[in-house]
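Changelog note: in this version the structure field was regenerated for every chain. One regenerated record is shown below for reference.
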Amino acid sequence: MTDEIFRRDGYAFEFEARVLSVDGDEVELDSTAFYPGGGGQVCDTGAIQGVAVTEAFYKGGRIVHKAPGNGLVAGDAVWCSVDWDRRYDLMQGHTGEHLLFCSLRRQVPDLAVNKIFISPESKYLVVDRDVGWEDVREALVFANRAIRDNLPVTKAVMSRDDPELEKVRIKRERIPEGEDVSVVSIGGIDLSACSGLHVMETGELEMMFVDRKASAGKDGVAIHFKVGREAMGSAMALANACLQVSDAIDSKPEDLVRTASNLRSEYDSLRKSAGRFVRAQAMGLAPTSVGGVDVVGGVFPPVDRSVLSEAAEAHKGKGRVCVLVSEGESASVVVSSGAGGVDCKDVLSKALADLGGKGGGRPDFAQGGTPSGVLAEDLFSRTMEEVVGRLQLIK
């Protein structure tokens, strides 16, 4: 049975051990400070007798250390070291996750966390709904105050049947009958069941900052955060970006949200107007006969592809072949055919291949686009050439 040093001392990162078994790259020790990952926190890395440990994980109830090319044998006495900088970053991140969620819960009391992920590259928690930026701001005010107050972070073990467990954030159904529960406390503001590694005081986090929210699909919304120096750097970078935007749109920083909201409303209104204009123009295109088949086409300003698709379907219904292109940073194209002899999917495949674009669809309707830099006129000409070539063969 391996003595799990990390359970009682997250700050231990160097230790002596004896090799219990070796199976290729996999090494088992009689004691280890390598955290094998769990609770959303990734595992430690480091070295055993100077050989890099790239991963640590549970396997059949045992902790296994992956050390490629180790050359060890059972019975060897070894000196081991955990990558401390990486470990400490993970400890800060995991403690930060607890602090951030309990702070968010003060703003949204029935908020639930569905998942967490703590690694050197990314730290986030997935909650069951979106949280407004104003609530995030208030939560960060509370969390950073707790950091300044340097609250103690302690761990205790409780019985699964302890009535005091009612005060703890826990998914009791995940705890097997008869198994004890590791509970992490942050001052008097949070109690949470967790077996991960944490710092001893909130002051060690230095600072916390939320820099992004993103959809996590059916799981909810991922709230990405940073702690320590990374939090400071991210906050400064985003503040500077906001100041640059403020200058670009001629708005005072304190009015930036309102100004951006107004600009978005104006943009949406103009886009709808452009869509109505382009729809009318595309629907009213005069056909040209090619091989006895009516063909229509044109290049239009940037609009939602649905506008062109609607017009293309209408022309198809009249037995026409239609090529509609929308310009922009990258050009998009819709091809439809209500006549035999023109396979839209094949037409688009050939036209886009020459221009480095991609698309797909059906023989009677296809759509696609090109990389930035390709002119809409070039896309239109190339696609129309393919259409005309096929119709001329029919004749």
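Spot check on this record: The two ends are 83 Å apart (CA to CA). Helices lie at 5-8, 84-107, 133-148, 228-248, 256-283, 305-317, 344-355, 376-394.
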